[in-house]
Amino acid sequence: PDLKLFTVSGYPFTKYADLSQTLVLMKKDAPANVMTTMLNTMGRFGAQTGAPVTKVTFDSAIQNDNAQHRDILVFAENSADIDNLGKLEPEIILEKVKGNLKSNFEAKSKDAAPQSTVTEDTGIATIAQYESPYGSGRSVVAILGDGQDGSYLLNKRLMNPGDLKMVGGGVAIFKPNAQPASYMVGPDYYTGSLPWHQRVWYSLLDQPLLLVLFTLVCALLFAGGIYYLMHSLIRFRNRRN
Q1: Keywords assigned by UniProt (predicted)?
Q2: pTM of the model
């Protein structure tokens, strides 16, 4: 997961400028501050691609195959089980975000009673990204705020393109009067396709010793090839003489 790609360019949702492969999940009775966050995010996507987001799919629940071949964007307030974000470890936040998606947006039976939660307005917000459990190589990005203050904090940053450039990793936490804190949590996954040599390169970026060793091996092979070529030319000239 790399939230910097999301905050800077809207990736992976903006792979298609009209967001035709994006599923937005929101509650039917989403409050005004959540709606504002969604609209500002859509506007940010449009500004990044230069095209209107006219093909995005909206739903209040994951049903049938509506999420299997789409990247998922979740807008919500923190439920009680994700409250007090600033007091939790990033790994725990990510697991609670995943559980919140499953419990609040997966289709339930008609007899299931809706759950209502009350949250403390702490003015803290979070953006989390992880691989979609509904489709391999697809992403889920959840944008969550604690009440009016948390949503205001998110919207203030969404409306200023430069404010989110420092965000990265799998979980980003926003607090009042502080820079966003980013954490690299969650398992790695790949979206799209890369040539084999670029995959090798990206794999080596996190292993500096292996990268140095790989560079030395390549240098030795290159030097050996040059030596063999020059030696062959010298022998060829000697035979002619």
Answers
A1: Cell membrane, Membrane, Transmembrane, Transmembrane helix
A2: 0.70
